[in-house]
Structure formats: C-alpha cells, structure tokens
Amino acid sequence: MSKVYFSTWKGELINNIGKPQEEWKESAYNLPAIYDDHRDSKAFIGWDGVALFKEDVDVIRLAMEYAAQYQEYSEACGRCAPGRWGGRILYDQLDKIARGEGSIADMEHLKEIGKSMQLTSKCEIGKTVPNPIIDLMTHFEDEFMDCINNQKASKHYTQEVSYIAKITAPCTDMCPSHVDIPAYIEGVRDLRFYDSLAATRKTMPLAHVCGRVCPHPCEDACRRTNLDEPISIMELKRLGADWESDHGLGFYHPMEKKKKPMGKKVSVIGSGPAGLTTAYYLAAQGVEVDVYEELPVLGGEVAVGVPEYRMPIDKYNQDIECVRDMGVNFILNSKVTADDMRRFETEYDAIMVATGTRISKKVRCDNEKEDVEGYWSAIEMLDQVNLWDKYGIGEAVDLTGKTVVCVGGGFTSMDVVRCAIRANAKKVYMIYRRDEKTIIKNTTYEEYHEAVEEGVEFLFHSAVNKMNDENNILKSLDVDKYELVPDPNGGRAQLVKVEGASYSIETDFIIPAVSQSADLELLPPEWEIGMTSWGTIKTNGKDYMTTRKGVFASGDCEYGPMTIVNAVGQAKRGTSVMLRYLQSGEISLNDDEIMEDHLRSLRVYDKDEKITGWLPGIPRQKSEVLDVDNRKDNNKEVNFGFTQEQAITEANRCMRCYYIAMVAT
C-alpha cells in the first residue's frame, strides 16, 4: 500500500490536497506508486478511478491523454454510437480545454457525453473510460475552470511527460499467458476463426492443448460470474485451432517471421510447453533455435503424461508442427549433460532450461521401498501408458484383475486413476488428505466427476501410514483417517488424525502422485546456479534469468509442478526478455510487462462488483461428452467440444470487459 495525494480508486476518496506529505493517507489498494527501479509514478488512471502520487500533476492533460488511449487502441468494438463517437468527443473536448481554447459549454458537454457512454455503451471499455475523467472534472473543477476562464493551456500541456497505457480484461489478467480472451471469443462469435486463432497465438502457441486441458483460471475472474455463470472460456479457445486443423489449412501465424536472421543461436532444453513456447517466439524473430529432447517423442509431459482421451496426440502434434513451421530444429533422444551445457554456453548465445519435473516424489510413509513389486511412480506409469497408446512404443499396460491405489490430489493423480480404469483394473482408489472441494479446485469439476462416473473411489481425509509387503511384493496399505479441526484463533483448519479410525486396503499397486521434482544434474556445479528450497532453478519470477548470465529457466523446473498455461506464460515472458538480452546483453522488462505485473498486483477482477446493464440468467453452454460406458475402456476423446450453434450462443454471453490502465511518469 502507498501514500497518495488523491485517490478515487474503487470508490475510495482520499483527498490530501493542502496537507503536508507526512500526513498523507495510504490507499487500501496496491496502486503502482513506484513504476520501476528507475521511475516513480506521478499518477495512475484506469477503469475504476484515478490516483495521484504527486502534487504537481496536470490533471487536465492526464484526462486528455487517457481519452486518447481509447482512440489509439482498437479494442472499442464500434458497435454502438456512444462507444464509437463518444470517446472521440471526450478527447477533442479535453484537448480543447487543455490547450486553452475551451468553454463552460465544453465542460457540460463532457459530462453529458461521459454519462451517456457510462449508461449506453455496449462494451465495458466504453462504459468505463469516462469514470476517471468525470472524477477529475468533479474534484479538480477549479483547475479546469482556470484554463477555461483565462483561456490558457494546462500547466504541463507542452512539457515532456511519459504516459504508459495497457489494455487488459479481468480474464486476461488472470490468465498466466495473458491471452487476449475477449478477442478470441469475438472471433468465434463472428465465425472469424483466423481472428480467434490469431488472438490466441499472439501469446499462446499451444491452442489445441490449452483449449482442452487448461484448468482455466481465467474463468475464476470472469465478470459474467457476478451476473450468473462464467463464460466457457477454455472450450471456446479450441475452436480456432480445430477449424484450422480439421480443414487441413496451413498454420496461421499472427506475426510474420523475420526474413532476415538475427544472427543469434539459442538452445532450448526440453520440448514441453515451456520449451515449445520459447522456440516459437524466438524463431519468429529470426533466432536460430535448437530444441533438445530426452524422450523419443516431442511434447514433454503433455505428450507422455496427459492421456489420449483428454489430449489427442494428433491435435497436440498440430501445435508442435506449428512451432516447427517457424523453422525450429528439434533433436530427439538427447539427454543433455553438464558437459553438453558447458559446450552450449560457447556454441549458443543463450540457453533456456525447460526440462520440467519428471521425478515422482515419495508418499513418505513407513516401510516405503521403491524396489517393492507394485510400487510404481506416476511418471513411469503414465510414460508407459502414453508411449504405447499414442506412439506404439514399449508395451501396453494391462491391469486386469488388479487393485490400484493412487496417492495424490491433482491432475497427475487424476490421469493415473482414469488410465488405470482404462487398463481394466478391478478396483481403483485415490487417497487424498483433504476433501472433495479441494480436489475440484486442484483440478476441475469435470475431471473429478468424470472419474467418479468411471468408477474411481475417492478416499478423502486419508493418508497412507505404512506399506506392507511379503517377499518384496506389495500386499496392503495401512491408512489413517483425518478430520479438519477449526483453528480457535480463526486461522486455517488443521488436519488431525482420528484415533481408532485407521483402516487397511489390500492392493497390487501403489502409485505416488503427490508431486514431482526436477532432475537438474545437467547444470554444471561450477556454474553455481541458484536453487530454491524446493530444488528448482531460482529466478526472480519476472525475467526468468538464472544467476548464470545467459542461462534462463521457465516452466516446472523453475517453479515446481504447475499447469501448462503457467509454463507457457513463464516461457513467453522469458523469451521476450531473452530477445532483448540477445540484442543488448542487458536484462530488462518492457513497459507492457511492467504494466502487466502492476495490474496483476492490483487485481483487475472484483468479485464483489454489482453488474448492471446486462440480462442475467442466460445459461452457460455445456458441450457433449462421451457416455461413460462408451469411454471407460478406450482412449476416445471424452469431450466433443461445442457445436457451431453452442459456440455462437456461448460467445454472445461474453460482456467484452476490456479496460484501459495508464500510468504517468
């Protein structure tokens, strides 16, 4: 929180005008008072108000420059007169006053136009642009009238002041890859699938993947939720990619590949989501990219970890080929060693480590022995299943007549139990320390309920205490029961063992899927690359440079096990920083990235906002899924996706919640 000279942000009214700075009050919000390491902010203006951090701010020019952003950016849809013409009038009238040619009638006209836009614009950018402008006209009327009465320019009208703006939306802000979600939804609504695909691929090259297996955190920040139900954002994303591949069209790239090579080379270690993202955006800028992959197939954990019924390999391969189409070179069956890394440092201009986390962690129970027959790590199990099912490599997994217990509570454990069902296991359990609500939060509502339908039995508030084996063959598990006990001080409820409630399960397999760790033996010890307490590569989480100059890291090996969209978001940011590093040798964030971080800290979505002007009660569309009896013994894709009619209906539920944010420095 920071002290402010004046603020109306989110309805707060802080007015420190005339007070000494030491008496200024603090805002209740994380406003960007410090823009970056080199610049303080003078003011912040956006969809929900304005904040001034300095006394000497030209509020008239601030309002004018904010109105100008509405003209500069194309996110105003132009489908209504208030939005199409109102913004232009706001800018023209404010500029007229700022240059010393305004009148009292102009002030009245501004207020009238602003109110009209707030009430009648069809999209949020038109509704919200007037908000801070009207605030400034109301609380700083004397400054406006001084310029009008004396026909003089505003105090900084001709001075050099930096105004930095960014378009955002609550869903886009919550998306780790910052995909322009309203734009790709609009493309679907208008049946302009190239437009939809272009909006996705600007920041997310894996449109097939993230249209199917993304946990869609964006939907948690959908303003439509405040009215009825969130937009089905993820399912709409796949439509552009499916349209491209189903019609046999060439790959559509939203940016044209630089014809002239940059003259720089980068090695990328790992071909999972982070590696593919890095390669795609580097190659687009003319960088020569070599991607090294340990496995015999491309795609990392999405290829060998995510089952065919969730992520058909022919669709994922389209995403991979889209990356290859940019001119990326892939090297398979290549486990990179420390010696290779030493060589890469001399042969390449930069390195991106994107090796993921492919070592399953232990359950941490008594008598846990990895060499016991029946102890099978989640990574090894899913590797065998998917290499056979997708590529015909190795041998099929047959669990006929077997009992399988998986320990976990995330996507990996869900994949394990559902694959075990498809491998004809007699009985499949998942043991999880917490409750149903938490496992749905960790995965998705659909994943959990589809697993229940298929016959997986979930044992909540339970934990394995001991493995029991005979002659090194697993026989059973001793399981303790827990209950949540509220903290009398109001803190987080604690899990407490229920005495006398322990039980035993006879089983043939225990499959730990509690988490994964990174294999980082490829890092030369003399490089002394910083590590986190979790055993992952340390960066500052903003530019993704490691403590070794020229060596970057992104994805699971940097953060720990995360979602695909998180890995893509990290890699996209890291690639942007790397491109500047390749050209200048310096590590820096650009204004778009700095604003991105400020807005994430500020939180764009307001769960308490009361939505008006929209018709509530329009039901969220639900795509058809394969019937349980027709899916649990095979790898057919479970989710059919939307029909055209469903897609258009769902896209029309989108309220197009673009906002403009701007900082003056």
Describe this structure as you would to a colleague:
It is a single chain. By secondary structure, the protein is an alpha/beta fold. Strands 2-1-4-3-21-5 form a 6-stranded antiparallel sheet, with helices on both faces. Strands 8-7-6-9-20 form a 5-stranded parallel sheet, sandwiched between helices. Helix 17 packs parallel to helix 19. The longest helix has 21 residues. The protein starts with 5 loop residues before the first strand and ends with a strand. The mean pLDDT is 96.
State the share of residues found in helices, binned by percent: 25-40%
Averaged pLDDT: 96
In terms of DSSP E residues, the strand content is 5-15%
The assembly state of the depicted protein chains is single chain
Uncertain regions: pLDDT < 50 for 5+ in a row? Answer: none
The count of β-strands is 21
List the defining traits of the structure above.
665 residues, single chain, globular, 5-stranded parallel beta sheet, alpha/beta, 6-stranded antiparallel beta sheet, 23 helices
